């Protein structure tokens, strides 16, 4: 009887994993004072009539801990790439040398570090909300199965499974946030 009322926990886990992947991407875009090619991921360049990610108009390298370089393939796009970086809000001042754009990563001050930890906390909270929404969908599936004749024991079992899945994923979000905040505050 229980088999016909199975709740798809794999689908719920996949959706929660998607929320975690999104959080990791958002965390990667936060600048921590160390050079990382991922800080340029959200920056788009107006190239050839469409908005294009920087990594599709040049090679992004991290030659040293406080420097990111972009070797722009098309010389005509150098100024557009430089402009996109200036307007991105990253707080980085690009320096151009031919087709190579150098981005020296400045040391973060204490106030900026605190602001970034708050931004990281906001990203984590939006991920927790997404996970809770998936939990709500799982609980709705359990309610529908209960209305269709699922036994009380099975209802309790599946509610427990969905709750355990939710708690496990929220703990992962909390751990990722703690790690990112420690990384940001590290001088």
From TrEMBL:
Main location: cytoplasm
Residue ranges constituting the Ribosome recycling factor domain according to the UniProt record: 23-185
KW Protein biosynthesis (keyword) present: yes
A single GO cellular-component term on record: cytosol
InterPro entries named among the record's database cross-references: Ribosome_recyc_fac (IPR002661), Ribosome_recyc_fac_dom (IPR023584), RRF_sf (IPR036191)
SUPFAM superfamilies, per the entry: Ribosome recycling factor, RRF (SSF55194)
A UniProt-annotated Pfam family: RRF
CDD domains recorded: RRF
GO MF annotation: an example: ribosomal large subunit binding
Keywords: Cytoplasm, Protein biosynthesis
GO terms classed as biological process: cytoplasmic translational termination
Origin superkingdom: Bacteria
Cell compartments where the protein resides: Cytoplasm
UniProt function note: Responsible for the release of ribosomes from messenger RNA at the termination of protein biosynthesis. May increase the efficiency of translation by recycling ribosomes from one round of translation to another.
Family membership noted in the UniProt record: Belongs to the RRF family.
Name the UniProt record assigns to this protein: Ribosome-recycling factor
Gene for this chain: frr
